[in-house]
Amino acid sequence: MCKSIRTRKPKLNHRQYYTTRYGKDVDIVSNNYPIVQNGQILGGFSVMEDWSRMDSLHKQILELQEKLRNHTASGKSHTASKLTAKYTFDDIVHISEPMRHVVSRCRQVAKSDSSVMIYGETGTGKELLAQSIHNASRRKDGPFLAINCAAIPENLLESLLFGTEKGAYTGAERRPGLFEQADGGTLLLDEINSMNLGLQAKLLRVLQEGTVRRVGGATEISVDVRVLSNTNIPPYQAMEENKLRRDLFYRLGVVNITIPPLRERKEDIPLLVKTFVMQCNQKLERNIRDADRNVLDAFYAYDWPGNVRELQHAVEHAMNVVPDAYSMITAEYIPEHIGGAAGQTGISAPDKQRDSLASTMKDMEYNTICRVLKETGGNISESARILQMSRQKLQYRIKRHRIDVQKLRE
């Protein structure tokens, strides 16, 4: 903090180790700022985070991964290993042409050892695709490890990736990093654009040389790892914003894959909904068959900023609140911000998705509501009582069917 005051510049991400008067080892990272007013230094302040516990947790993760890797290598139980990819290309639900193109290209890419960079908006399924590539490759029997570069503090990320030697810093122990643990397999670098540029330079060297040097170490360790990476912003945008080194991009992006957002492949929505319904039936012990046409209309009208993940959550939301007696998800049980989209845009699902029975039921509902409203002179409360539903549900259905209550009162 004194240096920050003296230079009048913030000193950020400063890691310090010390022992208190009570003998407790402390590992902190501090951000230090000068306080300047009208050109005069008034003082400074420091915001400190205790990383002792965080560092300990990451060490435990590395230890567990190493034990799992050794357990698998011993041949005792490969199927029990958690260092394997769960998903395959068969788990990617799609019928749309854009996704067919992506999956087809990835199946071909999986045959080689070239680095692949996957771009897609949040929730499009980047890791699912990465795991599928691994499981279709010659490395499928090797470990699959993934690390979120945005979730790990940059001071710890280097030691997690490359490992440490005893004495590299206070409390450091001899420990392999993820590159060593993924030897013979695949390492996924999630949100690579969030990695510090200095660390990106060290990563580039590992990729070029095929060797890794532990933090505090002097020897080079050979590793055979296929590196997959992903980013949630376009790679060229990341380079323009100085979030991704160009030389690293050319090394990681030997093959570039772009996953289309859900709004560009809405033909997949019915199949995705059906899949999520079946999954939720098992998870929530329900017996729902599908979503009705009005739900699909609303889903087609919505723009899905959260993509497939948001659709999955919308289905699970509906499955939690739909009454036990229902066998279909109806529009009043999907999230309100999604349910209102169809009425605002007038967009509906393609004709091939429409069901004649659902269409007939919709017409019957429309006619019944109009008849009751006419009989009550447009009285919403009285009509809701006759129809045995709440005012809120009736008003929702009036809005959904675009019923002009004023005309029915005349």
Automatic annotation (TrEMBL):
Keywords (A to Z) from UniProt = ATP-binding, DNA-binding, Nucleotide-binding, Transcription, Transcription regulation
Every Sigma-54 factor interaction domain range: 92-320
Q: Please give the superkingdom of this protein's source.
A: Bacteria
Q: Which InterPro entries match?
A: AAA+_ATPase (IPR003593), AAA_lid_NorR (IPR058031), HTH_Fis (IPR002197), Sigma_54_int (IPR002078), Sigma_54_int_dom_ATP-bd_1 (IPR025662), Sigma_54_int_dom_ATP-bd_2 (IPR025943), Sigma_54_int_dom_CS (IPR025944)
Q: Which PANTHER family match?
A: TRANSCRIPTIONAL ACTIVATOR ROCR, TRANSCRIPTIONAL REGULATORY PROTEIN
Q: What is this protein called?
A: Sigma 54-interacting transcriptional regulator
